[in-house]
Each structure stands twice: as structure tokens, then as C-alpha cells.
Design brief:
Layout lengths: L1 E2 L2 E2 H24 L4 H9 L2 H24 L7 H25 L12 H22 L1
Antiparallel strand pairs: 1-2
Length: 137
């Protein structure tokens, strides 16, 4: 099934990504904990900067989720669409670096942790990055 040049699999990926980011951002705003990124931010930064960054990343996640879901129904200008998808990709790479490498559960700060747990978490994050890349095509 093809809609606007996208395969059924791409549509499913886009819906899944949109919901993932939207729900993750809402949870972070509601509880202040959210997913791994909030914990990584809290382990790297302190005080007001920590709170501001957690809220900023939560809002970015909500906007990303809404944008990805709206892309299913609205035609967005090609240049704007590519720019927004590039920003989403860069933000996700920053999240990967913060959570998997620098944060308190990152491999650089927790060398004694289970390496398989790190690989599993890293692989999950790479799957999401691959989905972002696929959806942006």
C-alpha cells in the first residue's frame, strides 16, 4: 500500500514514532522523570539548569510527536519538512550521547555495569534513529 510515495511500513513507523515522542514528552512534563533522557540530564546538570533542560527536552518531544503525526495528514513544505526532520535527528543523537555515554547510566560513567544492558539500550536507541531516518525520506 502506497500513500504519497510512502510504504505501509513507513506509515506505521511514523505513527509509532509520533506516539512514542508525544507520550514520552507528556510523561516527562507530568512527573518530571520521563524516560531515560530526564535521568541523564539530572545526572549531568544541577539546579535550575537541570529543570529547564528537562522541560525543554520534554517540549521538544511533544512538538516532535505532534509534528510526526500531523505529517500523516498535512503536506508541509519540502524544505521546512527536511529542516524539521534534521532537527529531530540531531536532538535524538544528542539524547543517545547523553543517555548511553555521558549520563549516570552511560557506559563512560558506569564501566562496571552489565555491558549487555548497555548494548541493548543502545540498540533500541539506534532503532529509533533508524526509524527517524526512514520516516524523513
Amino acid at each position: 500500500m502506497v500513500k504519497n510515495g510512502k510504504t505501509f511500513g513507513s506509515l506505521i513507523l511514523q505513527i509509532a514514532l509520533g506516539l512514542l515522542f508525544l507520550i514520552s514528552g507528556i510523561w516527562t512534563i507530568q512527573s518530571g522523570n520521563g524516560r531515560e533522557i530526564a535521568g541523564a540530564i539530572r545526572s549531568i546538570f544541577d539546579g535550575d539548569l537541570e529543570e529547564i533542560l528537562v522541560i525543554v527536552f520534554a517540549v521538544i518531544e511533544i512538538i516532535t510527536g505532534v509534528f510526526l503525526l500531523l505529517r500523516l495528514f498535512l503536506v508541509i513544505g519540502t524544505n521546512l519538512d527536511k529542516l524539521l526532520m534534521l532537527i529531530i535527528m540531531i536532538c535524538w543523537i544528542v539524547c543517545i550521547v547523553m543517555t548511553d555515554f555521558i549520563g549516570s547510566n552511560g557506559i563512560l560513567n558506569n564501566l562496571n555495569s552489565n555491558f549487555l544492558n548497555f548494548l541493548h539500550r543502545f540498540a533500541n536507541h539506534l532503532l529509533i534513529l533508524g526509524a527517524i531516518i526512514k520516516v524523513s525520506e
